[in-house]
Amino acid sequence: MNSICILGSMGIWMMHTIKPTSRMSKFSEWLAGEIRLSNLATSLAAGLLIYTLEIIIITSFGALIYSGDLSGFLAQGIGLIIVGDAIICALVAIFSSYSGSIAIGQDAPSAVLAAAAATIAASFSANTGQPEQYMTVAMMILVTTLVTGLVFLSLGIFKLGKLVRYLPYPVMGGFLAGTGWLLFIGGIGVMADQLEISTLLLPNVLIRWVPGLLLGVVLVYSSKRFTSPLGMPLVLAGYVGLFYLTTWLAGIPVTNLQSEGWLLGSFPSDGIWSFPLSADVITLVDWSAITGLTLNLIPIVVVSVIALLLNANGLELTINRDLDLDHELKITGFANVAASLFGGIVGYHAVSLSSLNHTLTGGRRLPGLIAAFLLSLTVFLGAAVLSYLPKTMLGGLLVFLGLSMLIEWVYHAWFKFPKIDFAIILTILVVIAARGFLVGIAVGLIMTIILFVISYSQVNVAKYVLSGKSYRSRVNRTYRELEVLSLRGEQMVIIKLQGFIFFGTANNLFERVQMLFQQEQSFPLKYIILDFEQVSGMDSTGLLSFSKMLKLAGEKSSVILLASLPSRLNQQFTKGGFVDKPVGLVVFPDLDRAVEWCENGILEAAAINIGKAETLYEQLSHVIPGSAALQRLIGYFDIQNVEPGEVIIRQGDDPDLIYFIESGQVTAQFESPGREPVRLETMQGGRAVGEIGFYLGSKRTAAVVVDVSSVIYSLSKERLGEIEKNDPEAASMFHQVIVHLLGERVVHLMNVVNALQR
Q1: What residues contact residue 516 under an 8 Å CB cut-off, 6+ apart?
Q2: 3-state secondary structure of 262
Q3: Which of 143, 226, 299, 311 is the most exposed place for a label (fewest CB within 10 A)?
Q4: What sign results for the dihedral spanned by CA atoms 547, 549, 554, 560?
């Protein structure tokens, strides 16, 4: 009664939290489609086939968990598992975003639960078959399924399902390989009732597990050789028929098969399920045994989430449509929470059974509901039929599941993964086989972290290294200044950093700077700019390398410049005492300002008077040697004096004028509402302004603002037209000057691109 109340409350919550795919308004339409005679026949056939496979698979999981000292409680344990499986199967069939989804209790959680159950049973070593053993194991399964369901729900509600993808793939592969090993040896144990190597090879024991091993191999072969979803049911049905035909020909009655342990065991005909949360049950539970296994059960939650998402992805490929993964997490979480109250194991979507439903019916919900109904009917009315399942078939199915995982994550991994990743998978497998899941996962994570640190430290944190000869600021210099920067540009080096900087990569950067100082060049290295624009973060130990770098620069009378520091990194450098250093370190908001500062320093050291006044004629003569035509051209221009802050070109204006700067400085900037203007280019004497828009006739894409008192010349399109009519030689000179200036820009950009590609 209590469980019904709990489920009722959860059902009301689910209807408000999870979007069911079939609302009441569509129920009649759905029902009419399902019960149509042609559809009903195929749905019944598919449901019966899915039920047959589910009952065999989950019964094998039950035999795996309730084996050894727990074999006396096999019927009750399987009853709990089947009821839980029926609940999961029904709820996923009803609420999944894909109508053909079929869910089942899963192999990976069962393998870990079997190991935990054996540990609990061993703790009751005084004698076997105690009710406390069974009750404690059943409660351990209940709690594990409940916790896993709540994790599913949380990930789905908060849309955090993608977080599990951050688990290293080799670690996940090692876990699944270890699961395969446990399923394999568990299948042998189910058939032989023991795992002692010395006795497994005895003739009377060999006959019990070798047929199941061969069945597992045949199932593996048929699953790879034939793509039909009917392959497994046919092989299993053929094996059961062959088993009973062989025993009939040998004259062995069924009663002897049962008494000698060839069949699953004796099951009562009046029901095999009892409520696991009754007061009588709870009082017999050894809670200390369960809490002692908490860490060992954590991998169930992790691998279940991963497997659910992987199965959902596999189902998407099968049905050729996308699933709402967060929705699937929510409904699977609810289903597991509900199943846990009845003692079920962790379950979620099964790609094989869902594919079977998709193939037979096109993906209907009714087959999943029919399978769930038949599972419930089996527990309460027809459990006796389970008595006739051969142990070799159940064990062979476990062997098949284990071999499939081992083939995928050991054999195929050898060809698909880098050898170091394969070594991690193999190590985890061996450790899991020897010491258990938790130790295996821990070893795998430690190995992955170490390899990550080693591999990432080999990544070049310097995206590129450029010299001042190939990279310049957005300040458009005079021809004399450009000559000096081309000659002495090697005094400045720009290092574009990337990624996360920690002790390994920071030390590599320090060694790179050391090499730069050791290079022979005409002019000594004076400025090193470190651009942090693409740096995602830095650990505290990385500051040590920067401290060594700053000390080295001081010894060489050089300066370190930090550009584009994110606020978090700026705080780290400030706390480390770097930003406030008066000598040897300068911080700039962006790379362009840092490069401009270094260029000014190089020009000053070369005794070049930055922005030295020359007439426009003298400056353009550097472009086109002086001629009478150039002199006449300049005479056609209008001249004006402008003051700081004046706007000579407004963004969005018509391109009616072109400007030439004789003296002073102006800046082109891109303006956006509510944001600071972005500097595009700073221009000084001898530069043309607005030439592209002037020629193309397009609206001005940037504003041009006067920085200092300047003298500028301007020419209108109308005036240029008059020159072309009256003085073609001067007009030709104008076009030559513009082509030369634009060509210089293209050459400079090509040099930058070539430097970036080296």
Answers
A1: 465, 493, 525, 528
A2: coil
A3: 226
A4: negative
Q: Which of 20, 24, 48, 44 is nearest to 34 (CA)?
A: 44
For 124-275, where are the alpha helices, taking DSSP H only?
131-157, 169-192, 197-200, 203-225, 231-249, 254-259
Please state the φ and ψ torsions of residue 321, each to the nearest 5 degrees: -155, 160
Span 433-488, pLDDT tens digits: 888 777 887 887 788 788 777 777 777 888 889 888 888 888 877 777 888 888 99
Please tell me the class of the 616-757 domain.
mainly beta
pLDDT at 315: 83
Residue type, 213: L
What is the three-class DSSP state of 23? coil
H or E element in which residue 161 lies:
none
Class level of CATH domain 462-605: alpha beta
Q: In angstroms, how far is CA 688 from the centroid of its own chain?
A: 50
How far apart (Å, rounded) are the C-alpha atoms in residues 165 and 158? 16
CA dihedral sign, ordered 724, 727, 729, 735:
negative
**Are residues 737 and 720 in contact, defined by beta-carbon separation less than 8 angstroms?**
no
Query: Looking at 226-230, 302-306, 353-357, 742-746, which range is the least confident one?
Result: 226-230
Packing angle, helices 628-636 and 717-726, rounded to 10: 140
CB 532 within 8 A of CB 562: yes
3-state helix, strand, coil in the chain (%, to 5): 65, 10, 25
| 163 exposure class (CB count in 10 Å sphere: 0-12, 13-18, 19+) | exposed
* Calpha distance 561→586 (Å, rounded): 5
Please measure the distance between the N-terminal and C-terminal CA atoms of the chain and give it in whole angstroms: 75
Token readout for 231 is 């392959």
Please report the pLDDT score of residue 23 as a whole number: 47
pTM of the model: 0.67
What values do phi and psi take at 92, rounded to 5? Answer: -65, -40
Domain boundaries, the chain: 2-401, 462-605, 616-757
Q: Which of 375, 295, 286 is nearest to 339 (CA)?
A: 375
Q: What DSSP element (H or E) covers 44? A: helix 37-65
Do 319 and 59 touch, CB atoms closer than 8 A? no
- Which SS3 state, helix, strand or coil, does residue 560 take? strand
Closest of 476, 442, 392, 464 to residue 208, by C-alpha:
392
Q: Which residues share a beta bridge with 499?
A: 535
Instruction: Find where tokens 């309730």 sit.
Output: 66
Q: What is the DSSP string of 709-725?
A: EEEEEEEEHHHHHHHHH
